[in-house]
Amino acid sequence: MHSYIGNIHIHSSHSDGAQSIPEIAKEASQAGLDFIIVTDHDIIPLSDEGYYDDVLVLCGTEVNDTKHHYLALNVHKEIPPNDENPQQVIDAVNAQDGLGFIAHPYEKGSPLVLNNRTYPWTDWSVTGFTGIEVWNWSSQWRDGVQNIFLGLFYAYLHPTGPITGPTPEAMARFDEITRSRKITAIAGSDAHNWPIRRGPIRRDIFPYHYLFRTANNCVLLSEPLSKDLPTAKAQIYEALRYGRSYIVNRLASEATGFAFFATCDNTEFQMGDTVPLTDNTALHVQCPLECRGSTTIRIIHNGTLLDEIDRCNVAIRAYKPGTYRLEIRHGKKPWIFTNPIYISKA
After folding, report:
1. pTM reported for the whole predicted model
2. In terms of C-beta distances under 8 Å and separation of at least 24 residues, what long-range contacts does 22-25 make, across chains too?
3. Per the database record, which ranges form the Polymerase/histidinol phosphatase N-terminal domain (predicted)?
């Protein structure tokens, strides 16, 4: 499999972001990304899609205003917002054969930012969505800043202080849903590069180049990423649609050399695949050489901790059907969070 890393949930000057898409693409290139997905509010600037040097830029949109924010990808027409009936938004995305991700569903807010305003997702009766943004870096950081002292401390001395990994409530909801159907977990930066100008304080809140080195999404492709825009676009979105991806926090470590896959009777299966349960079904974990000895790997089965190991390059026999995913910490930092492999009775 061929691995490509990218950042999802980005805002540009087309809506409330600080820079143009070409400027953001330059930042992404300097950060070593392969692709980015811009999700401005109320606009889909498809004319800006394409390769900017070595970075593939794709454009979706973030739909809705006060709540039920939804990332609509691979759509070509704007989606009418409907804060009160998010199912209509989901259906409109699906009607265009698009992908949709529930954004920052459990954010808590901060009295220092927008007067504690949040944009939660409360209607879990909806169906048909592709997945959930289980980790929104900007929202999690803001949620941890509950007073001015913490804000200054985190902003200037300990910028990753509030960062703990995917939101537990979002992961619990994800695990619950994947026991009955397949969905995809993604991370979002929610990058805006907001400039703060208050008296002597001059600071850009989460510049693009910083967020591009935090929580990203690594997609697995069966063929190298094409330089042809329509083909490359289909490759990225197919991987996200079927959960052939995992989340990686690059501030902890790069994920080059990481792999999580299953085997059964000499056949290899990737994240998002369904594997028959036989006497030969096994899960395999591989980690980069430089991370060995400093990682803790949690194997999650149907949302419950199955095992915790501190070694890499292991094969683990699967005895029960269900969903299997990994949560990995490098040192004390949240590092890799995979989408599930689904094991079913043969």
Report:
1. 0.95
2. 22/48, 22/52, 24/57, 24/191, 24/208, 25/52, 25/53, 25/55, 25/57
3. 6-67
Distance set, CA 31 to CA 18, 78, 318, 342 (Å): 18, 30, 38, 33
Q: Give 118's DSSP letter.
A: -
Longest CA pairwise span in the chain (Å): 67
CA angle 199-205-206, nearest 5°? 160
Q: Which amino acid is at 186?
A: I
Q: How many other CB atoms sit within 10 Å of the CB of residue 289?
A: 11
- Report the C-alpha gap between 47 and 142 in whole angstroms: 33
Q: Where are the beta strands (DSSP E) in 121-256?
A: 131-136, 184-188, 194-198, 201-205, 215-221, 245-249
Q: List C-alpha distances in Å: 342 to 172, 184, 238, 243, 282.
A: 17, 12, 18, 11, 12
| Amino acid making up residue 222 | S
The number of residues in the chain equals 346
Edge-first strand order for the sheet with 282-286 is 267-269, 259-264, 282-286, 314-317
CA 35 to chain centre: 13
For the stretch 302-320, what's the b/e string if a residue is b when 16 or more beta carbons lie within 10 angstroms of its beta carbon? bbeebeeeeebeeebebee
Contact 57, 36 (CB under 8 A): yes
Quickly list H helices, 179-267.
208-211, 229-241
Give the model confidence (pLDDT) of 179-238 as tens digits. 999 999 999 999 988 766 556 555 667 899 999 999 999 999 999 999 999 999 999 999
